[in-house]
Each structure stands twice: as C-alpha cells, then as structure tokens.
Structure to design on (371 residues):
C-alpha cells in the first residue's frame, strides 16, 4: 500500500488518484478551496433557491436528503433558516437505531420545524438482501444503500419537488471514481461506486422478486429528465467541513455518543459520524479487509487537511485503531442477519485481500503498518 504524502489515504481506496508527487486528489481538491470565491458560490446558491422558492405554492419547494446526522443538521439550517425554503426531509429509516440517533432525529425536526418523510424498508427483504449481498459481494448493505440513492428521487418525482439537496460530494471530498470533478450537480453520484452496478435480476429467486424491492429501484434517465430533477450538492456552494458541521450541530442540540455516554465505538476513532445506527458500519468495516482502511482513515485525513492534526499523529492512530471491529456493532449486524459469529467470519474472510492484510493472533491486521 502507498499512502498520500500529506494525509493517510491509501492508494487502495477504490477510484483514488494521486499526482506525480504522491499527493491524493482529495488533498489537492482541499487546496483548491483556498482559491475559491465562496461569496460568489453563495450567491449562486441564493439564485438557485430563488428559482425554486415557492415554485409549488405553499407546498414543499425542496427535498433535503437527510438522516439524524451532523451534516443533516447543517443542511437544514442552510435551507430552512438562511434560504427561507420550505423543505421536506426524506430519509430511509435505519434497520436499528441508537438512542442517541433517535434523539438527534427528533432534534433536527423539532429545532428547525421540519416535516419528514421516512421510508422504513421491509425487514424481511432487508435481511434477505443483506445476506445475499454479504455472501456475493462482501458488501451487505448494498440494498439499503441503493434505497438511500433511489428513494429520494422516487419521492421527488411523485411529489413534484424537483430540487433535491445532498450534503457533500463524497468522491470529491474524500476520493473515488468521480473524485476529480467538482460540480453542483448530484445527477451522476449513482456512478460513484458506493453501490456496485449489479443487475437486479441477479438477486432474485423464489423468495425475492421485483415487487419486493421497488423502493430501491433507481429512476431511469427518462423519468429523471421528464420530472426535471435537479439533485444538488450543498458542498459545492459552501466551504464544506465535517468538523465544523459537527460543531455547528452540537450548538443546536445534536449529541454525539460521547455526549450521551451510550456507547464508545472501537475502530471508528470519532464518536460523531454515522452514529444513528448500530450494525450498519459492519458493512463499512469490510473495507478494511478488502482495502486496508475504513472510517478512521477518512476522518483522520480530513483532520490533517484542516490543520487539526499532524500526519505523524494520524499515522499512530491508524496503526493502533483502524483494524478494530466493534463488538456491539458486529453483534447487532449478525443478530439481524441471522448469522453466528463463526459464520460471519467464514464469509468475511473470503473477501480479505491477503496482499495487504493478514491474520495475527486471530485478528486481521495490516501486513505493513501505515507510514
């Protein structure tokens, strides 16, 4: 594995690119922000909101794709309070919730005064699809993630609300298949490799068919064009910072896992990102087996870019923490899917990239430490 010379992002991250000096594109993109005219970008956002504000009369004029998270709190602030829009939150309900997550979900709606449209997926279908995707791809939440991409667009078409707001352009901010392209449009994000392009027919059998998965069917290009959908990244218009979003969210009532004392997760390093659910991040941990990194690397790299931490400090944390799979997280996942822990590991280890990870004393670790 080769690591970025500025942060701790490795070259095994899918779609990541480095320049000739060994600097990753997310670090290069972060430097570009220093040259961006953010006042002009904000004016562009105001003009965009002027286009849609009141376009449905007294009905909703935009959809915020949101959860109970820190970034969602910031999105709600920008569009409800700063832009004076009339947003509808659209989210896909978690398979399992933390108490902290439920508190934050109540907080975002009550603090900003927002209606919400929450889709709760059929748990029987979720269980079947989690198992199928885990065993086939090593990516158990494929179906859930597909619904997260598809359902807000479905809702926008059905409710005639073309303006759909997303938070960050993950590929641009953290690296990925579309990482070098800075754009306000989120139309192409389905191609960002978060959800692998697997044909639906490959999942079907006697227990699963088209009618079972309709909420996760991504609208086709004709339907998107006909509805004039305008999915948009907020991160294009503001100097996006997950750290500052967390600090802002706490100022309006958001609580992280350290605030509530509900749970201290191992391996993730931070206790404020993706904290509304328990077992979901078992899926994300599979990135460690496949690519040698997962959540901690993402956030440590952000801290380095924003001057909150040195690279040497981050390297130490990666080597001490990144490999860990939290026991509570794993138990929630296997209980939902119906696996024993032994069955989980028998499947998971099939996807281990033995060029970069190895099992030592019964624990999967990097073969070579981060440097």
């Amino acid at each position: 594995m080769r690591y970025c010379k500025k942060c701790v992002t490795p070259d095994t991250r899918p779609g990541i690119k480095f320049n000739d000096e060994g600097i990753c594109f997310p670090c290069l993109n972060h430097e570009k922000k220093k040259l961006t005219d953010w006042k002009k970008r904000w004016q562009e956002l105001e003009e965009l909101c002027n286009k849609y504000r009141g376009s449905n009369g007294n009905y909703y004029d935009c959809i915020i794709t949101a959860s109970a998270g820190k970034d969602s709190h910031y999105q709600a602030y920008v569009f409800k309070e700063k832009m004076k829009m009339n947003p509808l939150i659209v989210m896909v309900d978690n398979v399992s919730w933390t108490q902290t997550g439920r508190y934050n979900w109540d907080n975002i709606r009550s603090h900003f005064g927002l209606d919400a449209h929450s889709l709760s997926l059929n748990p029987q279908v979720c269980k079947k699809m989690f198992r199928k995707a885990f065993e086939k791809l090593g990516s158990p939440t494929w179906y859930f993630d597909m619904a997260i991409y598809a359902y807000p667009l479905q809702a926008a078409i059905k409710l005639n609300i073309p303006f759909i707001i997303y938070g960050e352009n993950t590929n641009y901010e953290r690296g990925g298949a579309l990482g070098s392209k800075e754009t306000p449009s989120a139309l192409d994000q389905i191609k960002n490799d978060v959800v692998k392009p697997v044909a639906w027919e490959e999942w079907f059998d006697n227990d699963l068919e088209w009618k079972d998965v309709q909420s996760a069917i991504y609208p086709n290009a004709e339907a998107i064009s006909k509805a004039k959908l305008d999915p948009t990244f907020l991160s294009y218009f503001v100097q996006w910072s997950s750290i500052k979003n967390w600090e802002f969210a706490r100022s309006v009532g958001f609580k992280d896992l350290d605030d509530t004392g509900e749970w201290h997760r191992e391996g993730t390093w931070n206790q404020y990102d993706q904290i509304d659910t328990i077992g979901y991040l078992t899926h994300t941990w599979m990135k460690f087996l496949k690519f040698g990194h997962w959540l901690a690397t993402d956030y440590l790299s952000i801290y380095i870019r924003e001057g909150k931490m040195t690279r040497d400090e981050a390297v130490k944390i990666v080597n001490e923490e990144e490999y860990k799979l939290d026991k509570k997280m794993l138990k929630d996942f296997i209980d939902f899917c119906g696996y024993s822990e032994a069955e989980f590991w028998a499947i998971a280890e099939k996807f281990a990239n033995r060029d970069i990870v190895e099992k030592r004393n019964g624990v999967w670790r990097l073969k070579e430490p981060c440097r």
